Structure formats: C-alpha cells, structure tokens
Amino acid sequence: MDAPPPALRKIIHIDMDAFYASVEQRDDPGLRGKAIAVGGGGPRGVVATCSYEARKFGVRSAMPGARARRLCPELLFVKPRFEVYRSVSAQIRAIFARFTDMIQPLSLDEAYLDVTQNKPGIASATQVAQEIRRLIQEETGLTASAGVSYNKLIAKLASDQNKPDGLCVVRPTEGADFMARMPVRRIHGIGPVTAERMHKLGIETGADLRDRDMPFLKTHFGSSALFYYRAARGEDDRPVHERQGRKSVSVEDTFFEDLVAEEALLREIERIAQSLWARIEKAQAYGRTVVLKVKFADFRIITRSRSFAAPVRSVEQLVDAGRALLKAQLPLRMGARLLGLGIHNLEGEGEAGESGDAGAQLSLL
C-alpha cells in the first residue's frame, strides 16, 4: 500500500519594510517623509538600506554612497545604530515565538516561520500572518510585509509582491501559476548572470523555464538543473530550520567579459568590497581574515588571504585589504571571469540573507 503524500506545510516569510531606515524615521520625526540612506556617504561609503522615498530615485542597498548622492542629491545619510536594530529585531523575534518555535532568521529584518502547527492553534496561516503584522506595528511602530504559502521559495517571493506593508497569499492550487508569471530574474536562486544566460535562451518567465525539459536544463545549467526544474513548478521541500553557525560571508561576481586591465580589476574589487561590507554589517558578522577569490578564463581558481589581529571593522580596511591582495597577483596570467571577496574567522554569529547563484553571490555557510 502506497504511503500517503506528506501534508502541505504552512510557511510565512516576514520581511520588515526598509528596516534600518524605518527605525531611524520612527525615532527621528525630522527624517519622516524624506529620502534617507543608512550607511556611509563618503567616497568609500555604502548604502546599508534606504527609505522608500529614496528608492523612487533608484537608490538601493549595497550601492556606493557617491552614486546614491548622484541619483538623489537631497539624500540624507544616517549613521547606522546596529545596537538599536538588534534590539528591535529581538522584539520582533519574540513576537514570532508567540506563534511558533520553528523560526529561521535570514537577517535582522526577515525570517521564515513554519506555522503548520502553531501555539495559538489558529487554522489559517493567513490569519497568523495578519496577527503577527498587527503586533509588530502595535509594539514597534514599524510595518512588515508577509508572504504566505506552502513552501519557502514561494513565501519569500510573495512577501515582496505588495511591499510596503503588504500581504500576499499563494495557495497550493495557485503555486504553479504564480511561478509561471514570475520573471526568472526575480526567482531566488537565479542570479543576474544566470538570468542573462536564460534570456539568451529565450527563457524570460517561470512558464518559459517550465517548458524546458531536464536534458535541456542539464546541458545548459549543469548541477543547478533540478532546482530550476522544480522551482518553475512551484516545488520546494526545504524545511524551516534554525541556521547553524556561519563560517564566512562572501560576495562574488561573474563577468560577461573577462577582465584584464588593472584599473578595471581594482574598480571591480572595490565595488565587491562595498557590497560585502553591507552584508557584513547587516549580518553583524565581523571576521579577522579577508579572502580573495579569482577564477580565470580557463576556469582555474586561486584564493589568497590576509589575516588581522582583530576583526575588520571598517569598509576602508576591507577595501584596502582586497586591493592589496589583488595587486599582489597583478598582472594576471590571463583574464579574470570572476572576482570574489570573503570574510572568515568570524568573531560571532550574526544573521544574513540567503544567496542566489551566479552574479553577486552571497555565501553564508
């Protein structure tokens, strides 16, 4: 006799709206309604996050501060107060714990919750999400968006559908259609470089991806084929679980054309360092060892590292270390198709977001 199919889970993805910026606007009435960025506005500064007023000008997280100012001349930079963000995050985590112990934090401002079996015994996951959002606003003065679905992949995509202060529910019967309409560039796990490759193959949406069979996907995407095949069909069986201790945080970029010129290489490593620093600060995951990764045109990979007596505490130190590691390898024996920087030997465990693949990858474990 065949075993019954596994019961569908009820998953909520909660994502705070412009978290750091919203905390600053909450605490300083003079910032409300204004375009603000939390982070550094200097030559090597980077935007950790920004208000929705700033996003209208194209300002985004991990963007160099100088570029953000060019896009929005009236942008106000606010120094991060991570002790405050951690405190508010703990408040929000405590709210989650009233409903379930199955909580998987991704960062200070987002988490997955499995509410299939929840403490109040509420049958509707949608009702649970509504109550959590109500309590967050009531107790912290902040808004959160939520995605509700039967798996993590769709719940995370859904939480971004109606931001800010929104709710999106995708039921089991709607999952395949939801994914069919999704641009592949927005599917978590498909990075910018892979999305571009898909576009060149005529794959623009989840429906296009679903139309490709496994042999085709294996030919073009190798070991990632099964993930793409299942994602296009709304399938994801990853459980909600607490993260284990992280060993490193890193960012890497794959280039459309191999880089050879010293100026271009150093410019890219500085940009990658700025992006990495935004991740480090969000994760509160500071480490003593900076690691450079270079993948050459022939796919050979080298790594080089430099360790410090104390954890790296500034973007300037990170940029300088990355540039020094790269300069020691110049001139390269052939063009670089990928550059990456990582921070290792972490002093403690923070939380950070999950990675995509290909371009601008974030490795967390």
UniProtKB/TrEMBL annotation:
Its main location: cytoplasm. It is found in: Cytoplasm. GO terms for cellular component: cytosol. It holds the Pfam family IMS. Binds 2 magnesium ions per subunit. The record marks 20 as: Substrate discrimination. Keywords: Cytoplasm, DNA damage, DNA repair, DNA replication, DNA-binding, DNA-directed DNA polymerase, Magnesium, Metal-binding, Mutator protein, Nucleotidyltransferase, Transferase. The keyword Transferase applies. The keyword Nucleotidyltransferase applies. Monomer. Poorly processive, error-prone DNA polymerase involved in untargeted mutagenesis. Copies undamaged DNA at stalled replication forks, which arise in vivo from mismatched or misaligned primer ends. These misaligned primers can be extended by PolIV. Exhibits no 3'-5' exonuclease (proofreading) activity. May be involved in translesional synthesis, in conjunction with the beta clamp from PolIII. This is DNA polymerase IV. The gene is dinB.
